[in-house]
Amino acid sequence: MNKILIFLSLLSFSVTLMAKNIDISYHPQRGVFSTRPAKNWEESIVTGNGIMGAMVEGNPYKESIVFNHAQLFLPLNEPHLPVSQGKHLKEVRQMLFNDQYGEASQYIVNLATAEGFHDIHWSDPYVPAFRLNIVSDSVGTSDYARTVDFTTGEIEVKWRDTNGTFSRQMFISRPDKVCVIKFTAENDGRINATLSLSQITEQIEWWVDKFHYDEGYGLKKIENKSKNNELTFRGWYKKTWNGSLQGYDGVVKVVKADGKVKAENGNLIVRDAKNVLLLAWVEPSYNMDKSKVNDILARINSLPTDYATLLKPHESVHKDLFERVSLDLNATKEDRAKSSEELLASQGENPALIEKLFDAARYNIICATGINPPNLQGIWGGTVTPPWASDFTTNGNLPVAVSHYLQANTPELMLPLFDKLESLTDDFKTNAKELFDCRGIYIPSHFATHGLNNHFDATWPMTFWTVGAAWYSMFYYDYYLYTQDKDFLRKRALPFMEQSALFYEDFLIEGNNGKLVFCPSYSPENNPLNSPSQACINATMEIMGVNALLRAIIDASKILNVNQNKITKWESMLTMMPEYELNENGEIREWLWKDLKDNHEHRHASQLFGLYDLHDPVIMNSEELKNGCKKAIDRRMEIRRRDNGGIMAFGMVQLAFAASSMGESESAYDMLKWLGKSYWNNNLVSTHDPGGTFNLDISGGYPSLIMKMLVYSEPGVVSLLPATPKAWAKGSIKGVALRGGILLRELNWNGNNVEATLLADTDQSVTISVFGKGQNKITLKAGKSTKFTNSN
């Protein structure tokens, strides 16, 4: 009998050792550690699997978890055939040639009004599904922390009070496509809580009049029920049409609890539990006549009911994506242990903060990428009036949001962008035909649920912006340059580029000087100093974009040995493109037409387009143009220096991209510091403006900028530390992908001593420079690491 008692005691002790105790002081090394709950939804800590997203405020006694789904764009404005600008292009062009820029813009608005447009048509807004409320009696905490583990996507809220020690953990599984939530109580603690689902009705005041909701906030009907261990939510959208989303279904189910669970009055009441496991699912619906609740429950019931078992396959997928690249700027151990609140107080330049934001930004983008690329809010949102509808804004925001995918060696995350673009090809062809009477494709400035250009007005003449197809073609081509995937180049990249080139073949007209003319044209959201209208001719951005497309499609065709009868035409177009020019101050011009004067008091820097990513050889081979770009960068920084960077963020990222391309390390670093100082909430999710507007643009751009400052590549060329500031005297980065199918396995530097390890997919020779100097030629062997050192 004594032996049995001893055995049982040892077994109990062993089980106790195996259990994971709640350690409130512990926080993940690569993750968010916050010392207080969110004050609003924008400060909620986030997780996601690219399909569903969740936002956790972290209040121990009145928790709010907002659920989102990547496809929940509320039907608002039924798609409208684009204005028949193409039939009136002759008149529009004549107005522009006569310097009647505002009149040309208003002419299109008048035409649109006659064709059924009423005011500006916003994209269908991205809206949340519902809120899970978890309410219990408040007794006051003695210890508290909320954390996110970037390597697993796990959120944890943990606290201690007079009743015991408690935690809530959650993640959203990529393989199983379900949200997993675990409640734990330790010692004498017991979980006593009421769970319910509720509609989200929060509105941002500035945006209320854009969406014109009634009391239903876009929903005409809600079913919110509790039964057995389940909460269900069904929402019917009020304004729908054939082919639009009709609504959505959601389920939150207690799949395991060691206490009592009771359904009552739409709530689930949990009593006297030590452990509770919930599974949650949101499903969009194109037919609300048929409930999907039973289908969702069947999927949930087929899954394991153990947290660790569910976490393991998700962690494998998520961790693989996140850990492909890592940054070390020689931060101290003490600084790395600080909370997000403490780090953000360091004004943007603490190495630990830069490392942390590099990780946080990548985490945000990974979680937001899946069905779609990130929208303006990624995959999250706690309002029914999201700024700019939280759509895909193509003329600046979206390119920045996806900018680090390839550098960070996560090319598979770029594929949802291509999937989205290709799903809208028919609409893009309709745009080209209706707006310009052209073949090929035309990508609008905004899209969400369709790709028709419906978003414009007299102030913002976005039907005049034509570089979209060229710009997004370059993402296709860059995917090939990084991966060297010829099958992708042949089947996806080149066909998209060919459709883009068709548009410009038809759209561009020859001027009196034998050069091609972009008319109409648009440099996003800016107007010349000597013209109040944003409508224009020959915006430099558009010329640079089409130059890049023509070079890329010629190269791609030669690589694949196709289009031999078209290459001559594209080469001829290149020779006829307008030449870049400098203004009277020696700065590169934003408009290459007559005397349109540069306006530097603006948040964008579109005339530097050729330096955002793959360098424009026309600029790089001209000292005069390079100096002109440097001067333009400095002028654009003047308005930001006056307020420590304090205007919208993605334009500053693009300006910093250009500074990095020009080797202007301290200018790039100044902008990186501004970005780190003012554009993050304590959840380490980025904002659009200093201190406000939840937005994921710079979560894409911040790590991209850092990687650009540390390495630039083209096939056969690698530039190490091209724009590294003095403050980064020592550091390392691992896992950066380079063009040409090369992986920079590790780059270490300490003062002037530099060591790089490169791994190539194929045998090749590359020329390496360091700090913008030298021409060191080395040979790489396929599959074999090669070390390069520079100790000068």
Mean pLDDT: 95
Structural class: alpha+beta
Q: Helix amount, in percent? A: 25-40%
Kindly provide the radius of gyration, computed on alpha-carbon positions and rounded to a whole number of angstroms. 28 Å
Oligomer: single chain
For the termini, the CA-CA separation is: 77 Å
CATH topology of the domain at 20-75 and 127-322: Beta-galactosidase, Chain A, domain 5
Outline the low-pLDDT stretches. Answer: 1-19
> Which percent range describes the beta-strand content?
15-25%
Global geometry: globular
**The first-level CATH class name of the domain at 20-75 and 127-322:** Mainly Beta
User: What strand order characterises the main sheet?
Assistant: 1-6-7-8-9-16-13-12-11
Which architecture name of the domain at 20-75 and 127-322 does CATH use?
Answer: Distorted Sandwich
The total beta strand count reads 33
Would you write up a description of this structure?
It comes from Bacteroides xylanisolvens. This is Glycoside hydrolase family 95 protein. With 792 residues, the chain is an alpha+beta fold. Among the domains are: 20-75 and 127-322, Beta-galactosidase, Chain A, domain 5 (Distorted Sandwich); 81-116 and 424-599, Glycosyltransferase; 730-790. 33% of the residues lie in helices and 25% in strands. The strands form 8 sheets. It has a 9-stranded antiparallel β-sheet with strand order 1-6-7-8-9-16-13-12-11. A 7-stranded antiparallel β-sheet has the order 2-3-4-5-10-15-14. A 5-stranded antiparallel β-sheet has the order 17-28-29-30-33. A hairpin with a 2-residue loop joins strand 14 (260-264) and strand 15. It is globular. The N and C termini lie far apart (77 Å). Mean pLDDT is 95; it is low at 1-19.
